[in-house]
UniProtKB/TrEMBL annotation:
Record lineage: Bacteria, Pseudomonadati, Pseudomonadota, Gammaproteobacteria, Pseudomonadales
TM stretches of this protein: none
InterPro entries reported in the protein's UniProt record: DAO_C, DAO_C_sf, FAD-dep_OxRdtase, FAD/NAD-bd_sf, G3P_DH_FAD-dep
Similarity annotation: Belongs to the FAD-dependent glycerol-3-phosphate dehydrogenase family.
Cofactor requirement: FAD
NCBIfam families membership: PRK12266.1 (NF008899), PRK13369.1 (NF009906)
Protein name: Glycerol-3-phosphate dehydrogenase
The EC number(s) this enzyme carries: 1.1.5.3
Domain Alpha-glycerophosphate oxidase C-terminal: 385-488
UniProt-recorded Gene Ontology molecular function terms: glycerol-3-phosphate dehydrogenase (quinone) activity
Length: 507
């Protein structure tokens, strides 16, 4: 690791969406910030979500009106700040009278339309399904409403990049192995898990944003009891060949009162999820069970003409959500809201711990957490992130940006241009640079992935392994054979040997 022992205002532990959000917000208020993540950015829960920016229609049934209102307001902000990795999505809800009566759904959608100001998205409406729809012919009526889609892993990476642009130091593959509270500072020992080198740093405040590890970190790192425990709930998803006809998504009701999303994914697939199962174990080792796979397939097969079997599953993933333990009987009823615990004994440096939360409200959570931190830093600036555009997000529309990109690089294949816009926005120009032909992009690894993009991800987005690149920075892993994965890992290992110590410059 580079750098020497030094002092920071704030050290943030955890490189998920909440940790990077707090680091970005605090750095933008003028605080000196260090963020450490024991693995890759978004390597756990934050890359294993349903990838939605939504208010949570089903949360209305649990009377979580404040959470839904806040999430709907955040939906508008996020769609404006990151139009390359987030965009509007129209959902269709097939009506099943024996599950929820039409009046109840209409009432819920009315609330959903009006709980918060809606500027970018059209209102809900009733729809009639036709033979052209992929649903079974007996399903003829339904409803339609708007929400948003997000590339969750890229959201985390771009938030980390914004944090670094604002002056934060971001260290991946760096584990916090010990944190000791002194009178004026926290003394934190960091371990580079690649080199084995350690480093001791000091901070005037410490943030525990370790997600599923937030409670266990107290015991393993600080030698004290957690102020509260979290409820770990596993949510699993499967990816199957495309079921969606066009760009519409589906929200399917089930007999157990749960809902399942079927979302158009990448260019050729549909994403199906999620489950809600209480989990006890290492969050990093969570995988989908055969029972969960059957559960998701059974619901899809109940609604869609095209019938699926486990052999149709192209990919699956599971994430462990660190929910507040509100003692609800079922995992699906556990609140998706968040809370903070601030431990600041008289005369001692503060510790802020984040419990719960959801992808859509990460910016609001980060703002509220930073507000609490700034009570200890009177010199800090005010709120600023509501209109903060993430790197590459300074453009009006994806089609317009793709058109101008292909005018500048007329040799660029349309499929590659489309993916670059969806991943990098205006940073696509920075990635492509002075390239004048496809050959200038260097070695072709697989799909639409070329050497120049890999180099960009290593230099500017903290990518180290093939998994980082294929599943979190891009989704090209959907098209990769094991031989191609091994080839990319070999290339990265050789580059690492030649390059020497790790270093990433996002600016």
């Amino acid at each position: 690791m580079t750098g020497k022992a030094g002092d920071y205002d704030v050290i943030v532990i955890g490189g998920g969406v909440n940790g990077t959000g707090i680091a970005m917000d605090a750095a933008g208020r003028g605080l000196k910030v260090l963020l450490c993540e024991m693995n890759d950015l978004a390597s756990a829960t934050s890359s294993r979500s349903s990838k939605l920016i939504h208010g949570g229609l089903r949360y209305l049934e649990h009377y979580e009106f404040r959470l839904v209102r806040q999430a709907l307001a955040e939906r508008e902000s996020l769609l404006a700040n990151a139009p390359h990795i987030m965009w509007p999505l129209r959902f269709r809800l097939p009506h099943q009278p024996h599950l929820r009566p039409a009046w109840m759904i209409r009432a819920g959608l009315f609330l959903y339309d009006h709980l918060a100001k809606r500027e970018r998205l059209p209102a809900s409406r009733s729809v009639t399904f036709t033979p052209d729809d992929p649903l079974k012919p007996e399903i003829t009526r339904g409803f339609e409403y708007s929400d948003g889609w997000a590339d969750d892993a890229r959201l985390v990476v771009l938030t980390a990049r914004k944090a670094e642009e604002m002056g934060a130091e971001v260290l991946t593959r760096t584990r916090c192995v010990r944190a000791e509270r002194g009178e004026d500072t926290w003394q934190v020992t960091l371990l580079d898990t690649f080199t084995g080198d350690s480093r001791v740093v000091n901070a005037r405040a410490l943030v525990n944003a370790a997600g599923p590890w937030v409670s266990s970190l107290f015991d393993t790192t600080m030698g004290q009891q957690a102020p509260r425990m979290i409820r770990m709930v596993k949510g699993s998803h499967i990816v199957v060949p495309r079921l969606n006809r066009d760009s519409e998504a589906y929200i399917l009701q089930n007999e157990d009162e749960r809902i399942v999303f079927v979302i158009p994914y990448e260019d050729h697939f549909s994403l199906v999820g999620t489950t809600d199962v209480d989990y006890d174990g290492n969050p990093a080792e969570a995988t989908i069970s055969d029972e969960e796979t059957r559960y998701l397939l059974d619901i899809v097969n109940h609604y869609f003409r095209h019938q699926l079997t486990p052999k149709d599953v192209v990919w699956s993933y599971s994430g462990v959500r660190p929910l507040m333990d509100d003692e609800e009987d079922s995992a699906q009823k556990a609140s998706r809201d968040y809370s903070f615990e601030v431990d600041a004994p008289a005369g001692k440096t503060p510790l802020l711990s984040v419990f719960g939360g959801k992808l859509t409200t990460f910016r609001k959570l980060s703002e509220a957490a930073t507000d609490k931190l700034c009570q200890y830093f009177p010199e800090a600036g005010g709120r600023w992130t509501r209109t903060a555009v993430l790197p590459g997000g300074d453009f009006e529309s994806q089609p317009q940006l793709q058109e101008t990109l292909q005018e500048r690089y007329p040799w660029l294949p349309e499929l590659l241009a489309s993916r670059l816009v969806r991943c990098y926005g205006t940073d696509s120009y920075r990635l492509l640079g002075a390239s004048e032909s496809l050959n200038d992009l260097g070695q072709h690894f697989l799909g639409t992935l070329y050497e120049r993009e890999v180099q960009y991800l290593v230099r500017h987005e903290w990518a180290i392994t093939a998994e980082d690149i294929l599943w979190r920075r891009t989704k090209q892993g959907l098209y990769a054979s094991q031989r191609e994965v091994d080839k990319l890992d070999h290339w990265l290992e050789n580059r690492e040997k030649l390059a020497g110590p790790r270093h990433c410059t996002a600016g």
